[in-house]
């Protein structure tokens, strides 16, 4: 199978910090941004491509869009926002501490949803991957150090894998926090957590 270690860059300002990964391979284009939003600061974006996903990591995320809708997303929850012409999203950090969240822009078909949808990973226990409800092709899990696991997909698929916290060995490739890797065709994968409280996120992408 074809693999690609995803290029990344970090940008920072007085108001927030942004860590981005860009993927363009096999007809898929994905932009993943980790946003560290400082207290009292504002972050905004416009939905691009085929939709936008929000995933809070530290702290809850309060969003509003340019049409007046408001959303509250808790950690472990995933929210999908379809592409709506001229629609922008804004987040204001009203807390006295930083909040950290991820934003994913897809430029290839990832979901057949035309309305905003919100679901939860429900991480009920450690050392296994949990699907995100109706968006079950998104999986996330928290792992103890030296726990070996296996990911089995129903059929060969393109897979995006990112390490949100700690370190993993995924198919004999080292992934530290912030690292991502893409597989063009994969059905089974073995991985091992190398640190305590290591968090892995996988996204199965549609093969067109």
Task: Explain the overall architecture.
With 208 residues, the protein is mostly beta strands. 0% of the residues lie in helices and 64% in strands. It is built from no helices and 19 strands. It has strands spanning 3-5, 7-12, 16-25, 28-37, 42-46, 51-58, 61-65, 70-73, 77-81, 88-92, 99-106, 117-120, 130-132, 135-143, 148-165, 167-170, 173-176, 180-193, 198-205. Strands 1, 13, 14, 15, 16, 17, 18 and 19 form an eight-stranded antiparallel beta sheet that branches. A hairpin with a 2-residue loop joins strand 16 and strand 17 (173-176). The chain starts with a strand and ends with a strand.
Describe the structure using short key phrases:
64% strand, 208 residues, single chain, seven-stranded antiparallel beta sheet, mainly beta
Structure described in brief:
The protein is an all-beta fold and 208 residues long. 0% of the residues lie in helices and 64% in strands.
Write the element-wise H/E pattern from the N-terminal end onward: EEEEEEEEEEEEEEEEEEE
Q: What's the average pLDDT?
A: 81
Tell me about the largest β-sheet. 8 strands, antiparallel
- Which parts are unreliable, with pLDDT below 50 for 5 consecutive residues or more? none
- What's the overall geometry? globular
Radius of gyration: 16 Å
Total strands: 19
Q: Alpha-carbon distance between the termini?
A: 16 Å
Class from secondary-structure proportions: mainly beta
Helix content: under 10%
Strand content: over 45%
Specify the number of helices.
0
């Amino acid at each position: 199978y074809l693999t690609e270690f995803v290029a990344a860059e970090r940008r920072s300002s007085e108001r927030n910090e942004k860590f981005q990964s860009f993927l363009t391979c096999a007809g898929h284009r994905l932009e993943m941004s980790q946003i560290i939003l400082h207290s009292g600061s504002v972050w905004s974006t416009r939905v691009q491509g085929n939709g936008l996903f929000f995933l809070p990591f530290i702290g809850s995320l309060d969003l509003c869009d340019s049409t007046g809708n408001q959303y509250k997303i808790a950690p472990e929850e995933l929210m999908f926002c379809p592409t709506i012409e001229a629609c922008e999203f804004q987040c204001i950090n009203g807390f006295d501490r930083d909040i950290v969240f991820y934003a994913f822009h897809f430029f290839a078909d990832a979901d057949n949803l035309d309305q905003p949808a919100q679901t939860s990973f429900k991480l009920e226990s450690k050392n296994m991957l949990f699907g995100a409800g109706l968006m079950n092709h998104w999986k996330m899990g928290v792992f103890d150090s030296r726990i070996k696991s296996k990911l089995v997909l129903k059929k060969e698929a393109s897979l995006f894998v990112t390490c949100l916290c700690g370190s993993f060995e995924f198919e004999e490739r080292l992934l530290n926090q912030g690292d991502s890797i893409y597989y063009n065709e994969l059905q089974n994968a073995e991985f091992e957590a190398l640190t305590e409280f290591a968090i892995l996120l996988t996204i199965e992408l549609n093969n067109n």
